[in-house]
Structure formats: structure tokens, C-alpha cells
């Protein structure tokens, strides 16, 4: 595993109710193999996570690895599997055309040949998952996960403090902080963590898509007659974690500022 390439962060965030939230970039099975192979993964926490939470998260990554290895094998072995399946199709087609004496419509020969070819293709895929190639890749990635070390972070402590405060504030005040976010006092040393934290929130909660809907929050604060209905629809659909979105807006504003000279 790489130790001298770029680093990526995993953040453990403690919610006010004691639940754990892990923000990580491994949600895409298309990318997890390359990410674990080509980057150094660093864990960060504020309040120390429980052992059972870390164990559950590790098991979640193991499941993602299984999907990632399957996708990786599918791409790496596509050409040979396709060729073998194509050969199977041709053999079945000619067998049914010339060996079986009963007259069979050409369309039936093609259909049977395709069914056999598809079966061969998927059987090879199942066999590949049990191959030495898959076992080696799976082991390498699992070792990479086991090497991830979580360390205390002042940045995450700051995030948790801000989040816990917003989770206990009145709803109107949280909405106001979304519309009028206040910058955090964040040192330049934490910019790398903050940048990735923002991106992970955007990926996990699709926060960018809510930028266009912030006029709803402005109407709510302005006392518009539509304010309750508009916001009610968002609340009922559980589309937005309001305290987390307020934290996101605050840190987003902070990292958008130029670095201190």
C-alpha cells in the first residue's frame, strides 16, 4: 500500500445523541480498489469512537472491498471471458446447425447459443471470485483497511462542538445559520482536513443540490405565507440534516476564504 502518495481522510463524527457517523470516500465500488492501493488513508476523530463502532465500520469496508474486487475482476477479465463465451456460442450454434438432424429455426439456434454464452460468461465470473488472483487482491485491500489508524484531531473536535451546538439550538436559529453562515476560526494547518471534510459531506448528503433551495429558508425567516409548507415538505421527506447542513455552510464559508498571509 502506498505511503508516499496523496492522503485521504476518514472522519469519525460523534453526534449529540451518541451515534457515530463515518465520512469516507469509499462509497463507490468503482473507486475503492484504486483508492486503497494508491493513497495513504488517515483516520481522524474528536471524541474517541467506541470499539464496536470501529469494528462495524471496518466490516462495512470489507463488504465494499468484496464489491470492488468483483468490479475490478470484471474489468480485468472482460476480454478473456468474452472470447471464451463467444467460442461457446459458435460451438453451440454449429452443433445445433449441423449435428442435430432435426430442423431447427435459425432463431432458436441463435437463442440457445446466446443463452449458453451468457451462462459461460457469468460462471467464469463466479469462478474468478474464488481464484488466487481475487484472493490476493482481497487480502491486499483488507490489509490496507486494517492499517488505517484513527488519531485525535483538533479539527474534528471543532466540528463536533459546532454540530452539537446546532443540534440543541432552536430550529429557527439553525435555519438562520444556514442562510447567514458564520465562519469558523480555523487555522491554515487544518485546511487539508477541512477541504476533504467539505467534499465528503457533499458526496454523502448531496449538499450541493440544496444550494438552489435556500430561498425556501429565506422565505421561512422572512415570514412568507409559503414558508411552513415549503419547509414542511423538506422535513417530511427527511431530505436534509439541518444541523449538519448548517455546519457544512459554516465550514464551507471558512475554507472559501483566502489563506492567511
Measured distance between first and last alpha carbons: 36 Å
Strand order in the largest sheet: 2-1-3-4
- Mean pLDDT metric: 83
**SSE ordering:** EEHEHHHHEHHHHHH
Characterize the structure shown.
With 261 residues, this protein is α/β, with parallel strands linked by helices. Among the domains are: 76-143; 162-253, no CATH class. Helices cover 64% and strands 8% of the residues. The chain has helices at residues 32-38, 51-76, 78-99, 106-129, 132-146, 154-168, 171-179, 191-205, 214-221, 227-237, 242-256, and strands at residues 7-14, 20-23, 40-45, 150-152. Strands 2-1-3-4 form a four-stranded mixed β-sheet. Strand 1 (7-14) and strand 2 form a beta hairpin. The two termini are 36 Å apart.
How is this structure best summarized?
64% of the residues lie in helices and 8% in strands. It has 261 residues and is of the alpha/beta class. Strand 1 and strand 2 (20-23) form a beta hairpin.
Q: Keyphrases for this structure?
A:
261 residues
